[in-house]
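Figure 2 data, in text form.
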Amino acid sequence: MGFNMAMWRLLLGFLIAAGLAACSTAPTFDAKEASVAEISAPPAPAAMAAPRPAKAQSTLGTQWGEGRESVTKVVQASRLTPDRPRDAGQMRYSDEDSIRRALGKYAEQQTNALLADGDVELQVLGGNGAALRIFSTRGAKDFHVAGRNGERYELVYTNRSKRYYEVVATVDGLDVLSGQPGSIQSAGYLLRPGERLVIDGFRKSDREVAAFRFSVKGRAYANNTPAGDARNVGVIGSALFEVRLDQRDPDLPRRRAPEVELRDPRDPSAFPADARQYAPPPQYRR
């Protein structure tokens, strides 16, 4: 009898201990199961999933086109954030068929792109003044401009805000003012509140630009100038800086650049970086 009572007490002790252990581990187990269920939830149906942004390989470049009158002047201003643009981005360009094939059924079409939270609208206008089609993947900002070989185009920035912006623009990786590799440190064009800025070519002087014209890639300016890089052909870039005008001297005429004799780039030069202020003409290989 004594032995049986001892065994029952021992067994009852094990049962009580097991019950306490179960009570103490249950919340942890439930929480773990909830967490696992959330992490390993089945993916959304294909119809609901956001499409991946596509990138159309460009079939076009931008050629150094005919001279067009475009007078510019210096405005004294300072960037509010010198090393950090308010907005920066790029859009690719190619022929429309290539773009549609790359984007497939998710292609959406628009006539402009919004920059700086909508402060600035960017349009690409053709030679007839009509906006070129801009395609993107549904829900993404992978902008693609549809161009045609030989067509002239312009970059048009419209300021819908009361802020002053500086626009640093590049075409095929080259700064549109200097023709040198694009950098956010480069100087840009002033875009005043409510105004419209038209950039229609690579700047040749303070009074003239070489028009932007879509071309085959082999004739692209970036493929025929020492500063260019073939990998960047087919891309248009924009960086916007909010600026503050110097109210003491807000609008000065641009000082004329000194006349510089054009030289063979293979010849030696003591001050090569100072040879030109604006974009040099192309050097076609054939």
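Caption note: The two ends are 113 Å apart (CA to CA).
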